[in-house]
Amino acid sequence: MKRNFYINSDGKLRRKENTVYHINEDGDQKPIPIEKIYSIYSYGSLTYTSQCTHLLAKEGVPIHFFNYYGYYDGSFYPKETYLSGKVTVNQAEHYLKQEKRLELAKKFVKGSIENIKSNLKRYNKNKKLEVIEDIKNELKDTQKVTEVMNIEGRCRSTYYKSFDEILPEKFKYTSRSRQPPKNMVNCLLSFGNSLLYSTTISEIYNSQLDPTISYLHEPRERRFSLALDIADVFKPLIVDRTIFYLTNKGMLDKKHFDDDLNKCLLNEEGRKKFEKRYEKTLNRTIKHREIQKKCLIPTFNKTRVL
Q1: β-pairing verdict for 46-48 and 11-16
Q2: What pLDDT score does 305 carry?
Q3: Of 258, 260, 159, 239, whose CA–CA distance to 191 is shortest?
Q4: What domains does the chain contain, in order, with CATH numbers?
Q5: Which residues pair with 294 in a beta bridge?
Q6: 64 among the known binding-site residues?
Q7: Which residues are registered as beta bridge partners of 13?
Q8: Model confidence over 34-53: pLDDT tens digits?
Q9: Is 217 one of the annotated binding-site residues?
Q10: Which of 72, 170, 231, 294 counts the most CB atoms within 10 A of its CB?
């Protein structure tokens, strides 16, 4: 089975025949057979040769790059071998026709809200559930995408207010802060959301969809806005549950974070712990309500952290 490979240290990627080698600063080499790579996530300073690039492109393997703060910087995105002209035309048509775009935007938000409700039910936050359900009911009367986004934002704001009741005392949420995050919970949210965004890009790449044509978020230059639409649906199930598990089980502590100049960042050990649990969360099976069968969320089921 193919795996995600997470590279948390500085180093190089080199190709020898059909194997990619990661060489760290000490010169230690770790082989990564190309047939086992699903995606590569790089959190360190990574250099790679043109021969390595050719091999990754041939096999359809993307590399996602993250900056010092853990935010997504960009991807090496192989040639669009899997894009379909017919699908792209249909995507564009659904964006240009207001009623079709509005219908899809509502479905994205409904999915996101239902997953938020699932988390609140798990932790018996019934008062928040009632508030969110009331807000969700406003969706049926919306006539604009901006109104749909407003409803999603209000639901998520209400949801975040429950974090201090779900998380341990030392993990105080307080309020959302970004670029850079100001405390440990915001750090985990930003790190996890960036990770899910890049995971979604990988999955879109393996479909025939164009990642730049979206319906809830406005398509803009230099971003894959369809990944934002889709990732929002899965944040509660994947990112938030990863955070709840790691913090409530005592697997993350202050020693896994670096506080400096009014910012809070995961250190290398903290990133590795998050990545491993994130993958385990991705690879669990869920019971599909419509087909009444257990399904594996992603198309891969293993990971390797370097």
Answers
A1: parallel
A2: 53
A3: 239
A4: 3-76 (3.100.10.20), 96-298 (1.20.120.920)
A5: 287
A6: no
A7: 22, 48
A8: 888 889 999 888 888 889 98
A9: yes
A10: 231
**Is a pLDDT exceeding 60 seen at residue 304?**
no
22 marked as binding residue: no
Whether the bond between 181 and the residue before it is cis, its omega within 30 degrees of 0, is: no
Assess contact for 120 and 128: CB atoms under 8 A: yes
- 239: tokens are 């990112």
* 3-state SS string for the chain: CCEEEEECCCEEEEEECCEEEEEECCCCEEEEEHHHEEEEEECCCEEECHHHHHHHHHCCCCEEEECCCCCEEEEECCCCCCCCHHHHHHHHHHHHCHHHHHHHHHHHHHHHHHHHHHHHHHCCCHHHHHHHHHHHHHHHHCCCHHHHHHHHHHHHHHHHCCHHHHCCCCCCCCCCCCCCCCCHHHHHHHHHHHHHHHHHHHHHHCCCCCCCCCCCCCCCCCCCHHHHHHHHHHHHHHHHHHHHHHHHCCCCCHHHEEECCCCEEECHHHHHHHHHHHHHHHCCEEECCCCCCEEECCCCCEEEEC
Q: Which residue has the tokens 């492109």?
A: 57
- 205 close to 82: Cβ distance less than 8 angstroms: yes
Residue 208, pLDDT score:
81
Mean of pLDDT over the chain: 87
- Read off the pTM: 0.84
CB atoms within 10 A of CB 96: 10
Q: In the chain, pLDDT over 90 holds for what percent of residues?
A: 49
Q: Both tokens of residue 233? A: 């649906």
Task: Compare 260 and 104 and report the one with higher pLDDT.
Answer: 104
Q: Looking at residue 300, what is its pLDDT? A: 39
Q: pLDDT tens digit string along 86-101?
A: 889 999 999 999 999 9
Tell me the pLDDT band of 262, cut-offs 50, 70 and 90.
Answer: confident
